[in-house]
């Protein structure tokens, strides 16, 4: 099973062809036999500025791009293909010209996704300042769900959040995966992508537990100062039961409630020690939703072995 990851970054390798051509060469070496690339415009190659990060797991790939320059195709091949692509927009717009066998154009904007069955390569272009994840799956794995019926939806749905959390984990650990782990990661990626289309995944399946736990962590990190942040609220957002969420954290070193408490304390500690901070202990307690200053001080001391005031003095 081939597993690989590679990144190109214009900030470190240079703007234009110095960055773009190594990306194309590496892709063709790794995945070109399965998924050949179209020909990109000269303006794309000459002016490329941004980053491209690719992870390959056998016949499946995740490509993430963050660019300040636009990208566009110049020519596309006529060979028949059998793959399923999922575009998840995070910034800007990816515009696809007739991207499926039913005809018609599609635009993938921030916060949306588009999945379709690729039978022939299509033209596309992006706006400047685009951020997107592009997944490529083998046709056999996903074709029945999208052939002739491409799917467009919100990228903040519960199923999408869990898929994206799993994707982030795969991107982070791909280089260290052995064959069995890579196969499991690839299979989970496909099943979660199916769940995105069906708006449902089997939350009793143990292989999805790490993705569910990561999605819960991502949601918690975005809402640490919210008064209503709780395991029940997050479970509701992800359309699972609290019991299912607890099971997802069972293999970890802490409960989900413990994770929320720890992250709140870490954020409070960072704020208290910021050079420009004028934050008081009572204000920190209120911002990060501790019932009162005494509760905050006790929890803080248990975590860091000193009081918040002493911690701030030492760090400063």
From TrEMBL:
Residues 214-314 form the HTH araC/xylS-type domain. GO terms for molecular function: DNA-binding transcription factor activity; sequence-specific DNA binding. It holds the Pfam family HTH_18. The keyword 4Fe-4S does not apply. InterPro entries: AraC_XylS_family_regulators (IPR050204), Homeodomain-like_sf (IPR009057), HTH_AraC (IPR018060), HTH_AraC-typ_CS (IPR018062). Keywords: DNA-binding, Transcription, Transcription regulation. PANTHER family: ARAC SUBFAMILY, HTH-TYPE TRANSCRIPTIONAL ACTIVATOR RHAS-RELATED. This is AraC-type DNA-binding protein. It comes from Paractinoplanes atraurantiacus. The lineage of its organism: Bacteria, Bacillati, Actinomycetota, Actinomycetes, Micromonosporales.
């Amino acid at each position: 099973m081939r597993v690989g990851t590679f990144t190109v970054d214009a900030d470190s390798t240079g703007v234009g062809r110095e960055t773009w051509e190594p990306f194309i060469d590496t892709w063709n070496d790794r995945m070109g036999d399965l998924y050949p690339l179209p020909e990109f415009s000269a303006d794309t190659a000459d002016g490329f500025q941004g980053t491209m990060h690719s992870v390959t797991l056998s016949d499946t790939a995740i490509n993430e791009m963050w660019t300040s320059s636009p990208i566009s195709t110049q020519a596309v091949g006529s060979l028949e293909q059998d793959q399923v692509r999922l575009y998840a927009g995070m910034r800007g717009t990816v515009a696809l010209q007739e991207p499926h066998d039913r005809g018609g154009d599609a635009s993938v904007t921030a916060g949306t996704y588009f999945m379709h069955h690729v039978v022939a390569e299509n033209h596309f272009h992006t706006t400047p300042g685009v951020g997107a994840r592009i997944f490529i799956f083998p046709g056999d794995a996903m074709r029945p769900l999208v052939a002739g019926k491409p799917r467009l939806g919100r990228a903040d749905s519960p199923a999408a959040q869990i898929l994206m959390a799993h994707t982030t984990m795969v991107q982070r650990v791909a280089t260290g995966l052995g064959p069995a782990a890579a196969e499991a990661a690839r299979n989970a990626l496909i099943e979660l992508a199916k769940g995105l289309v069906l708006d449902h995944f089997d939350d009793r399946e143990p292989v999805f537990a790490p993705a569910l736990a990561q999605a819960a962590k991502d949601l918690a990190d975005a809402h640490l100062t919210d008064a209503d942040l709780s395991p029940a609220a997050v479970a509701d957002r992800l359309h699972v039961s609290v019991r299912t969420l607890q099971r997802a954290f069972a293999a970890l070193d802490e409960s989900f409630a413990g994770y929320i408490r720890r992250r709140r304390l870490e954020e409070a500690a960072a704020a208290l020690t910021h050079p420009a901070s004028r934050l008081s202990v009572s204000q920190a307690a209120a911002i990060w939703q501790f019932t009162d200053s005494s509760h905050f001080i006790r929890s803080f001391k248990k975590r860091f072995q000193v009081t918040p005031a002493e911690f701030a003095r030492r760090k400063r």
